[in-house]
Amino acid sequence: MTKKTHDADVTFIQALAELLRENDLTELEVMREYADNDSLNVRVSRHAVQMPAPVMPATAAPAPQYAPAASAPAPEPDTDPASHPGAVPSPMVGTIYLQAEPGAPTFVSVGDTVSEGDTLLIIEAMKTMNHIPAPRAGTVRRILVEDGGAVEYGAPLMIIE
Q1: What is the pLDDT confidence band of residue 74, given thresholds at 50, 70 and 90?
Q2: Where is the composition biased (Low complexity) (predicted)?
Q3: Could you tell me if 39 and 98 lie in one domain?
Q4: CB 146 within 8 A of CB 96
Q5: Looking at the 3D structure of the chain, how many domains does it have?
């Protein structure tokens, strides 16, 4: 790598770090291709400060459309979905889309059977639509995210058993 390319890479990484800070993101990952067998892979991350979860009042709210079906076993309220063995974690920070476009049917619903590699949802990150595949075959038991909502890296998206 020449000195000129190195300086450009440092400037590029500094710009990514600034973008991370300005948009209050916890992680960015970018691959920059120069030529055959010459690329730069960069992951810029920072340790996010964990805020305690807000205490919600004990009043019952209407069930969202992605709630578990009546035939599915109800999750235990004290169980953290992230620790469930069937949890599908988010591979990136971004915005969740449960369907390919507004008005289209969702990729999956609670109770659907999926095969390994089937698209579960889309995460938009830096204007790029990333299809998130099912890591294993099984039945979708819970959808833990809302369409149009934000997701952090590692946050549970769904439970597939």
Answers
A1: low
A2: 60-73
A3: no
A4: yes
A5: 2
Q: What angle do CA 144, 120, 125 make, to 5 degrees?
A: 85
CA atoms within 13 A on the CB side of 87: 17
* 91 domain residue, yes or no: yes
- Residue 126 sits in a domain of what CATH number? 2.40.50.100
Window from 40-44, 72-76, 111-115, 140-144 with minimum mean pLDDT: 72-76
* Tokens found for residue 9: 């890479």
Which CA distances in Å does 31 have to 139, 143, 154, 160?
34, 30, 20, 30
Task: Return the SS3 of 81.
Answer: helix
Q: What is the pLDDT of residues 116-140, one digit of tens each?
A: 999 999 999 888 889 999 999 999 9
Confidence of residue 1 (pLDDT cuts 50, 70, 90): very low
Q: What residues pair up with 143 in beta bridges, in sequence order?
A: 158
